[in-house]
Amino acid sequence: SRTVWINGSWLPEQEAKVSVFDRGFLFADAIYEVTAVIDGKLVDFDGHMARLRRSCASLSLACPWDGEALRALHQELIQRNQLDEGAIYLQLTRGDSGDRTFLCPEGTEPTLVLFTQAREIVNVPQGIQGIRAITCPDIRWGRRDIKSVGLLAACMAKQEARRQGADDALLVEQGFITEGASSNVFIVTPDNRLVTRPLGNDILHGITRGTLLKLAQELGIEHVERPFTPTEAREASEVFISSATSLVWPVVAIDGVAIGDGAPGPFTRRLRERYIAALREQMA
Ligand code: PMP
C-alpha cells in the first residue's frame, strides 16, 4: 500500500482520512497541484510550487509550508513509495471548520494531503499515436487560472468524450477553444506557426504550456499566443494538448474529423521529444 502524507503524518493510504467537515469536501474550498515524476525526479517543480503560491494568494489561503519544506515532502514521498515514473498529487484545503459554514471561522488550520500515483508518462500510446478529441461547451467558472479542485465540468466533459467514443474533450467558449478538460491546447497552422491561447482568467496557466513555449523559442519555431476557433483547429496541420502527466499528446481527430493526415505531425513529435530530452538533461 502507498504511504500518504496528511497534516504532518506519514500514513498507509487506508488510514489517511479527512473530516466530513473539511471545506475541501463540502465546498471545494481547496487547491491542488500535480507534479510529474520521471526517473524518480520531479519535473518543473519550481513552476508548480510558484503556481501553488499564486492559487493560495488568489483565495487568501495561507500555506504554512514554504518551498523547501514542500520540496522535502515531495522527495520523501518519492522515496517512501519508490516512485520511478508517475505523479505527486498535492491538495491544500482551507481545513476542517467544525461545521458546514460558508464563511470560514478564523484560526481554521488548513489540510494538506500528498500522495503518489505510479503511471507511465513517456512510453504511452496516447503520446506516441495520439488521441481523439471532441469539442464541447466550456461551462466552468470564471477563475480557471486558480487551480481549484472544483472539477465537475471537466469530469462531465470527459464522460461525454467517452460516450462519443473519444479520449478527451476540448472546451469551447464564445466560439473559441479555451483549453482541454485537463490540459492546454496548441495548434500548428498550415503556414507552420505554433498557436496557443494567451493567459488570462479563462484558462489554467499550464506549467507544461510555459515550458513548451520556451522550447519552441529555442528551436526557432514561430509561435503566437492568440485565441483560435474549433474550425481553425480542425483545419490545422497539427493539434496537441499539454499537461504535467501527458507532457504532449498529439490530437489526431476532432469531432471525428482527422487532423492533417490523421497521424502525429512533425512539430508535435519534435516538441515532445525535445521536452523529454530537456527534462532528462535538467535532472542529470
Ligand atoms: N488546463 C487544465 C484545465 C488542467 O486541468 C491542466 C492540468 N492540471 C492543464 C491545463 C495543464 O497544466 P499543467 O501543464 O500545469 O499540468
TrEMBL record:
Entry annotated with the keyword Iron: no
Physiological role: Involved in the biosynthesis of p-aminobenzoate (PABA), a precursor of tetrahydrofolate. Converts 4-amino-4-deoxychorismate into 4-aminobenzoate (PABA) and pyruvate.
Keywords tagged on the record: Aminotransferase, Folate biosynthesis, Pyridoxal phosphate, Transferase
Pathway this chain belongs to: Cofactor biosynthesis; tetrahydrofolate biosynthesis; 4-aminobenzoate from chorismate: step 2/2; Amino-acid biosynthesis; L-leucine biosynthesis; L-leucine from 3-methyl-2-oxobutanoate: step 4/4; Amino-acid biosynthesis; L-valine biosynthesis; L-valine from pyruvate: step 4/4; Amino-acid biosynthesis; L-isoleucine biosynthesis; L-isoleucine from 2-oxobutanoate: step 4/4
BP GO annotations: amino acid biosynthetic process; folic acid biosynthetic process
Top-level taxon of origin: Bacteria
NCBIfam families, per database record: PRK06680.1 (NF005209)
Keyword hit for Thylakoid: no
Cofactor: pyridoxal 5'-phosphate
Gene3D superfamilies: 3.30.470.10, D-amino Acid Aminotransferase, subunit A, domain 2 (3.20.10.10)
Cellular component terms per the entry's GO annotation: cytosol
InterPro entries: Aminotrans_IV, Aminotrans_IV_CS, Aminotransferase-like, BCAT-like_C, BCAT-like_N, Class-IV_PLP-Dep_Aminotrnsfr
GO MF: 4-amino-4-deoxychorismate lyase activity; L-isoleucine-2-oxoglutarate transaminase activity; L-leucine-2-oxoglutarate transaminase activity; L-valine-2-oxoglutarate transaminase activity
Enzymatic reactions: L-leucine + 2-oxoglutarate = 4-methyl-2-oxopentanoate + L-glutamate; L-valine + 2-oxoglutarate = 3-methyl-2-oxobutanoate + L-glutamate; L-isoleucine + 2-oxoglutarate = (S)-3-methyl-2-oxopentanoate + L-glutamate; 4-amino-4-deoxychorismate = 4-aminobenzoate + pyruvate + H(+)
Protein name (database record): Aminodeoxychorismate lyase
Enzyme Commission numbers on file: 2.6.1.42, 4.1.3.38
Family according to the record: Belongs to the class-IV pyridoxal-phosphate-dependent aminotransferase family.
